[in-house]
Each structure stands twice: as C-alpha cells, then as structure tokens.
C-alpha cells in the first residue's frame, strides 16, 4: 500500500517534492551524541545553563566552552557522514531542488554527505554570530568572550550561532512554504520533543503530504505519521532512497 501511495505522489506529475526533517539520531552512528537518549547531552548538561539566552548572560564562558567542545568533537577526523547522510545526498542529486533537507542538527554531516540544499533551523556549530547584528560568520575556531565580529565598528562580541530555547528558529518562512507544497514528508532521527519542528508533520499532513517516520524508536509524535519504520538510520534511509529511486525510474 505505502509504495502505491509513494508511487501516486511521485508520478502525480513531473515534480514530486520531498521534505526531509532530520534530528540528532541521523548523526548518532557518526559518533555524535544525541540529546535525549541514554547518556545524551541533556543528561550531562542543564539546558537552562547552556542552551538559553539567560544561561549565556549568566555564565557566557560555560556556554562558549559547551559549544567549543561540541565543535571539537565534530572536527575530530573520526566523525564522518554515515550511509544515511550519503543516501540523502544521493536523493538530492536525483531530485534536485524537489528534495529539501530541514535539519535541527548543528553539525555539517549532511553537507559532507553530499547534500547541497540544507536548511539549518537551529543554527550551526561551524559558524558564529555577531551579538549586535546577528550576522553569521564561518568559524571553525573556538568562540570565546574575546572573539569579535568584523561587521561592526567598534567590533562586537561573537556568540555561538545556535538557536537556543526561547529563540525563534531560522528560516521558518522558507520551511513553511516547502511543507505547504510537499508530497512526501520524511522525519528521520528526531524524538519529536521540540517545537516548531515537532509540529511539521501535522502541517504536512494537512497539506496532503504522505508522512513517514524513520527512527530508532517510536517518537513522541509517532501517531501523526501515515507510515513508520524503526531501526538505525544508516539502514532505513538507504532503503527509503532506494525505494524512491526505483519508483522515480518506473514512474
Ligand atoms: N538511527 C535512527 N534514529 C536514532 C538513532 C539511529 N542510529 N539513534 C537515536 N535515534 C533517535 C532516538 O530514538 C531519538 O528519537 O533519534 C532521536 C534523537 O532525539 P533527541 O536526542 O531528542 O534529538 P532531537 O530530536 O534532534 O532534538 C531536537 O532538541 O535539544 C534540542 O536543539 C536541540 O535540535 C535539538 C532538538
């Protein structure tokens, strides 16, 4: 049945649009910690201390250190894209702009896995932003209280380019327009705990999309999906892309 639905979506006309939402689970097999699994990041760090504007105001050095440690892990040469990232890179090369990846992740593994159209709604570890203008700059180095922007005179302090709890995620207008006209919405490796990302499936369903959850375990929003497969992303995402590729070739 689900392949019939996928085929109906894919062959409805020439342009079938797929929106993919990813969370920390897609990078777990690359060696990056998730947030809410056993021994996850939020087990060892208080969200209010390291992921809120108030926490940053209270103790900026603790927050700078937290994101500098995450960046150092990401830049470790043992951390590489896994088959799920490469499969999505292949899907984008197959579908071009008709496949959009919206990620809650702040790593660069989608791009290193060949993806070219990635919307980072929660920011990125490998950039920093000016505390005054909010302009982002590429930054692979540590960001500390001494770091300064290049967009202001006098130069202003830089902060991690991360969307903290209580702050508005980036690119929401673009994301909503993609959800509005997507035919297939696929959620990968997210627990469905954090809004607005956790609400995207409902919006996509209301707009007539076929929604699919690919996750290690059922997420908190698993009942919202028309179709679900559980297991490691490195297996499920490869299988999903192979399914779409064969349906595209036969449509
Ligand atoms: N393959 C597929 N899914 C996996 C894997 C794997 N190998 N390993 C873990 N998962 C799943 C878990 O079952 C869980 O549902 O990934 C999900 C990770 O959930 P979270 O740790 O809550 O991460 P995420 O959903 O991305 O968090 C969303 O919360 O803290 C904020 O801004 C932060 O972007 C983050 C947001």
UniProtKB/TrEMBL annotation:
PROSITE patterns: SIRTUIN
Catalytic activity: N(6)-acetyl-L-lysyl-[protein] + NAD(+) + H2O = 2''-O-acetyl-ADP-D-ribose + nicotinamide + L-lysyl-[protein]
Family: Belongs to the sirtuin family. Class III subfamily.
Enzyme class: transferase
Name of protein: NAD-dependent protein deacylase
Subcellular location field: Cytoplasm
Active-site residues, as the UniProt record annotates them: 122
Positions with a binding annotation for NAD(+): 23-42, 104-107, 189-191, 215-217, 233
EC number(s) reported in the record: 2.3.1.286
Top-level taxon in the UniProt lineage: Bacteria
Cofactor: Zn(2+)
MF GO annotations: acyltransferase activity
Function (record text): NAD-dependent protein deacetylase which modulates the activities of several proteins which are inactive in their acetylated form.
SUPFAM superfamilies reported in the protein's UniProt record: DHS-like NAD/FAD-binding domain
Chain positions recorded as Zn(2+) binding sites: 130, 149
Organism: Agaribacter flavus
Deacetylase sirtuin-type domain mapped to chain residues: 1-251
Xref: Pfam families: SIR2 (PF02146)
InterPro entries linked to this entry: DHS-like_NAD/FAD-binding_dom (IPR029035), NAD-dep_sirtuin_deacylases (IPR050134), Sirtuin (IPR003000), Sirtuin_cat_small_dom_sf (IPR026591), Sirtuin_class_III (IPR027546), Ssirtuin_cat_dom (IPR026590)
Cofactor binding note of this UniProt entry: Binds 1 zinc ion per subunit.
Keywords in alphabetical order: Acyltransferase, Cytoplasm, Metal-binding, NAD, Transferase, Zinc
């Amino acid at each position: 049945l689900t392949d019939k639905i996928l085929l109906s979506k894919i062959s409805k006309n020439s342009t079938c649009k797929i929106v993919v939402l990813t969370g920390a689970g897609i990078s777990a097999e690359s060696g990056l910690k998730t947030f809410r699994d056993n021994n996850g990041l939020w087990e060892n760090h208080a969200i209010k201390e390291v992921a809120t504007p108030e926490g940053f105001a209270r103790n900026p050095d603790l927050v700078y250190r937290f994101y500098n440690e995450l960046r150092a892990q990401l830049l470790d040469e043992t951390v590489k894209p896994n088959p799920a990232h490469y499969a999505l890179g292949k899907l984008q090369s197959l579908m071009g702009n008709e496949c959009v990846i919206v990620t809650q992740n702040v790593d660069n593994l989608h791009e290193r896995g060949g993806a070219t159209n990635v919307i980072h709604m929660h920011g990125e570890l490998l950039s920093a932003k000016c505390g005054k203008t909010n302009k982002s700059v590429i930054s692979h180095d540590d960001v500390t209280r001494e770091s300064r922007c290049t967009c202001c005179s006098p130069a202003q302090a830089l902060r991690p380019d991360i969307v903290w709890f209580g702050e508005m995620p980036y690119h929401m207008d673009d994301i909503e327009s993609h959800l509005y006209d997507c035919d297939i919405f696929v959620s990968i490796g997210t627990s469905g705990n954090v809004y607005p990302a956790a609400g995207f499936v409902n919006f996509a369903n209301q707009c007539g999309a076929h929604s699919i959850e690919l996750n290690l375990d059922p997420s908190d929003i698993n009942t919202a999906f028309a179709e679900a497969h559980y297991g490691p992303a490195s297996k499920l995402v490869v299988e999903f892309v192979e399914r779409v590729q064969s349906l595209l070739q036969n449509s």
